[in-house]
Amino acid sequence: MKAFRTIAGHSSLYDRDYYLWLQGTVKQLDRGKFAELDIANLIEELTDMGRRERRALESNLVVLLMHLLKYQYQVEKRSNSWLATIFGHRRRLRKAFQDSPSLKNYFLEVFDECYLDARQLAALETGLPLDTLPMSATFSPEESLDPEFLPD
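Request: output the structure for the sequence above.
Response:
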């Protein structure tokens, strides 16, 4: 998030024109003009980039797990749309791991938490009582990513 910073009553370029600030920062880095960098905002942006990557992973994982639960517990309503969603979110996660292999560790850390969120969402979407869905996943993190796996 862009923070509002002022120096002697003037807002910084970061606050006035974010895109121009980004272009200028890239040029400064490319030219080795490190002393001219807006370090505070650069650190903030890099930190936010990491947060966004983690949030995107969590979001994709929750949607994937929710659809795996729906597939498992609403056999009579299985659809190609659900399969497409499962495929699409597995693909997004696979691409994230290709770009940033260290996100796989984060995936494993948040799997159980994301499962609980997916469980609640699946209950809301399906109308099934929450206690119908198990408190822990009946499939492993690895199975959830396996393109051949679908829960019974």
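Confidence is low (pLDDT under 50) at residues 1-10.
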